[in-house]
Amino acid sequence: MKNLVKDYLIFCGLEIVMLFFFTLYLKKYNILLKENFRGEKIPCCMGIVLSLVWVIYLLKIFFYTLGIKWLILAVSMWCISFIGFLDDIFGDNKSKGFKGHIIRFIKNGEFSTGLLKMISIPSVIFISSMILHKEVAQAVFDAIFGSLCVNLFNLFDIRPGRCIKVLWIFVVLLSFFIHLDSTAILFLTLTIPFFIGDLRELYMLGDAGSNVIGYLFFLFLTNSYSETYNSVLIWMVFIAVFGLNILSEHISFSRIIEKNTFLNFIDMLGRKN
């Protein structure tokens, strides 16, 4: 317990320092700023800081234990975050959803950053799963499930703090069925410093952050079981995540949240009016 608190204080301090200086630097030199939903220009991809802190912590565990699992998780987490970072920098709003990026490529021959994510993220998860489990069926399942989780949390990153709130809510609901070890708890608590700045609209999470949060949610579920694709809970969550991804192609989650009194209250909690 003492080591957990010590690690949290060290990595929380590192995160706060990085957030402060990166935000200050980007605003001062007008770099990587995008308009938020209010039309205010703020740093657009600060989720890369959150993922970097997580990756450094995973590497720390690897160097202490020499467990290959931790190195694979660190590399895959960084790759998924960096893919989102590229989308934050070079992406546009010409196409949305799976269908939009595919149609854009077929009709115009344009290879969007969204299409890059659709190809590269499943590939990263598939390779990681193959190295860890050496089972093709599980690796295919993990690639599909993990990619759907990443995309789902990306869809929630529309308003300040929403993506991290959804992570907390989902984890609380699932905590009755899955075991959260000390590493998972530390990862969750390290979202708090970032959440405060995100909620106050000092910076955006961006795809660099929402991607890796979706991947973390996937890891919380799948790393809790030795037989991932045979777990009833995993399949139930998979169906739910798959269904929400399909629904997102036809409806707006933001509109549903805004129209529902309870969901809107949770969404607005702590946000600027």
TrEMBL record:
Transmembrane segments: 6-26, 47-64, 70-90, 111-131, 137-156, 168-196, 202-221, 228-247
Keywords on record: Membrane, Transferase, Transmembrane, Transmembrane helix
GO MF annotation terms: transferase activity
Keyword Cytoplasm tagged: no
Superkingdom of this protein's organism: Bacteria
Keyword Phosphoprotein listed: no
This protein's name: Glycosyl transferase
Organism field: Caldicellulosiruptor diazotrophicus
